[in-house]
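Handout, section 4.2: multi-component inputs.
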Amino acid sequence: MRWTSLLWTLVILCVGVTPDIAQTKAAATAAPFRITGVVVGTNDGAPVSHCHLTATQVPRNNTSVRQFPAPLETFDCDEHGRFSIPLPSAGMWRVTASAPGYVTQAYNEHEEFSSGIVLTTAVPTMDLRFRIAPEGVITGKVLDEAGEPVRRARVSLLKLAAGGADEAQPQARTRGAATTDDRGVYEFDNLPPGDYRIRVQAQVWYAVAAQPQRQGVNEGSEADPSLDVVYPLTWYPGTSDANEAETISLRAGDNHEADLQLHPVPSMHLRIMPSAEVAANGRRIQAYPMVERVSSDGNAGFVPVSIRVNSQGVMDIGGLTPGQYEITMQAPGERRPPALVDVVPGSAQVLDPSAPSAMANVSIQVEGIPEPEASSVQIGLFDPETGRSIARRSPAFLLTNGVMHQRREVNGEHVLEVPPGHYQVAIEGRPDLFLTDVTAQFATATGKLVTVPSGNSMLVVHVAKGKSSLQGFVMHKGKPVEGAMVVLVPATLGEATGINIIRRDQSNTDGSYDLYDVLPGQYILLAIDDGWHVNWRDASTLQRYMMNGTPIDLAPAANIKQDVEAQAP
Amino acid sequence: MRRGWSHVRFQRSRWVWLLWLAVLFMSGQAAWAQDSASGASGPYPIHGRVLNANTGLPVWRALVRLNNHAMLTGHDGSFEFDGATDASGTVLVSKPGFYPSTEWGFSPGLSVPREELSKPLELRLYPEAIFTGTVTASDGEPLPHVIVVARRSTFDDRGHHWIPVSQVQTNAHGQFRLPVPAGDYRLATMYAPRLGGGNEAVLPVSVPADGVLTIKSGEQQNFDLHPAMGRTYKVKATFDSDVEGGFPRIVARSSSGLAIPMPVNISRTDTRESVRMELPTGTYQLMVTMLSRAGVEQGSTAVTVTNHDIDDLALHLSPVPKLPVELLVDDAATSDNAPPKLQQFGLTLENTNPDADFFNSSIYLATQRDQTAEFTVPPGTYRLRARGSGGWYVKSAMYGATDLLQQDLVIAAGAGAAQIRVTVSDQVAALQGVCRANEGPVACWVYLVPSTPSAEPVYTVRSNLQGAFNLEHLPPGNYRAIAFEQRHQADYSDAATLTPFAAHVKTVTLRVGEKPMLELDAVATGEMNR
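Output:
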């Protein structure tokens, strides 16, 4: 059972879908459906007292938007970790357990998958041995160049996604954020086992840019260079190069210490030429910049900067570290389109708001489905190397680097403003649609990859409905297998064009699996019993299992039933 | 699902600890300093040291700013601005973990003339204080992720305030650290339903329940908080009127006097809004305040939570009474002053019993489109506060037969609203004087406390560096006056506040048109902190 991709749907729908609790409860006492069991630690197998469980029914149909009911009330287990959850109906239930000192987990959870508990009139009850992992903790101290604690440093914890080929946008995901205390100490608790990285963003407390300024602008003297410093974005164990970041592999119950020391570097400066715009009364409109840093995981953050204006109106922005920034000039009563600036060491950066934009203005049309549905489809441009979202077109707003802008329309078309370059086009938020082709005017397109130049260009995104679904049972010698890793490998894997997305699921208590919203095409279906440590991303490893897999030909909008034999890991 | 909780949290700026406050400094007192400065003339470097005010030890890596110059102090706490020949300057010093003053909200900007700058400067930093501790359940189990807040008790010319100064979540071991400036505090845990994904809630607890904790600069105090825990149930309450777009705030008052600000989840079905919350077992009065397009509405309902969810609670809101305020000019007022406006007197009603989070501690006067002014006053007990302005002062304030300068304003639920009549006068007095310490005049803060009925609990003025002070536009009447070498904010409406300093207190009677001279023996810094 796959959960994470559907979580957002769940979150959105929960607000509107609230079952009548009293009725649910009345039904529960009368109904014979029940999940019982004991919660034990993965470390020692001992029962976990003080635990809590929730049960949520998982709908099993292939509608484009699946509605999830809200979880039932929380059930407490007894001091021996035993629990009994009365349920109002048969069906597939997702059960999660939590306890102090343990990670909140779904039953038989692996990465983003878990086994659903399937109850029927024939099997109305089920007794589980529910294993949950002791929480991991990463804690550490952030010190400055003199060994003194750095307070209020923003520490981000990034979990390396298990994903890859089955993710549209593989990347490290921010798992949490913490702020250091007066001793420079931060802590992340309740962590599941996994691979993590730590990133710290902090202000040099004594730096020019950190000092409050009258109306945000200082006029006059140059800053003392020893105080015109910044801390670069620093990765554990102390590097500003993300590629040198150390990965912390956390096992269940681990307590990992990750201390960092920050070293200041000279602040980078950006000069902004005065705007030529003149107000109706003839006075020059003074616009002030809003500076946001564009970070690799798409989380833009406002950066406190020092701003000085000379007599010619040239603005000097200090307090910047090397990196990409989005500069939005704001004047009273107006907000102008933002400019992206790469601040790199060794060159004076100048931004001239009056200069013609070097950005690519990309208008996007969706074809293949009728209006007005076509206009409502959200299209995103991604960095093909990192999978990072660069911009997206949606009916209500435009996002550039995670910053929301008012919708801008030119002749009824949506226009995305992005730096000229190479992008991958993808549909977002519509699992029922698939992208068949992209054609371009004043730009080039190969498959889903496009190259857009400065100035105006147009992309026509051809989409089609009719994603397929695949359901069945994982069997071994005629018996259903619970918790197996089900893998659907496209026949075109590794080829430049064609489907490159590997889909996975985990079999439920009755051995069943569901793969929804699958792109039509040819696949090999396989299942690996207890195969969660198998390196399925490695082509040669996968090849070994594919030999015993089942070929599947999925026609558009097909719903295929196919059982699969579990292979030994 | 915890989405949609409209839980109000304090937004604390990342830069609170970097509050730049100016520094009072003592100049030319250290012997080492006098040697280096003697006989110098012409442009000389501005220099000095930064010291820990408690220990006298140098503070290294403190940032000293003088006008446009800035530098970090060395290992011996020293600093020197080589090229600085500024005619005068404002000196600021800061370092994380230190405050430039023991007083809260000390106003920045002490201008220093050149002759003072030429002497070695001795700047003092006060180490912050810190509350540490744990939050544990009754069985000793540590409670992680519980919010602990330190609220500081402060007084100013407008009365008493509780200011949330520092807030933190307990860590995995239930521990917390709250660095704060020295002062008077209460520590409190916030209501936390669904702790650890379960059905238990952590109930608010306040330490101390009454009174304050006093913590000094550099001090660490440790507290183990043991909030009560309770099994919670879901309670759904539906408004019996259309309150679309409103934002409700709900406080559950238990029979034992506990007030719990409720995180609520608002939803709309058909045409009715309902709120969902999680209440521990017990009997409560739910006090609902709704800010909607219709204005402020309020209601309350009783609910008893036993061992099951409740989904049929009805909430009825009524508009909160509005008290129009009328301005009258005293017959004796002279006509050559500009006629006053009600808005210039900063009228507020101070709640004598604000709720747990002190959101409702003060009610401000609102001016309508037709220029009439009114207070929107939920039931409660209030004290009227005002300040003199433009040569005018509030001579009397009446609510029916209630004299609001001497009595509290009591608004009962469902009571009709009468008018508040405020009479102002420009028949004022004045006071001048000088502060002295043992050897002569000294810079000081002067507090003038009215003994006769007044809308202002205290008049505060800061002397110049030579100790001279001047207060204009004072209501005629009797006063007690006291001077402190440092700012000393306290509850001056409480006569006991000045008891420890009785030897320094002088009484003075001010009459219209007069400006008597008062010499005050300032309370020394050392005596203040005892």
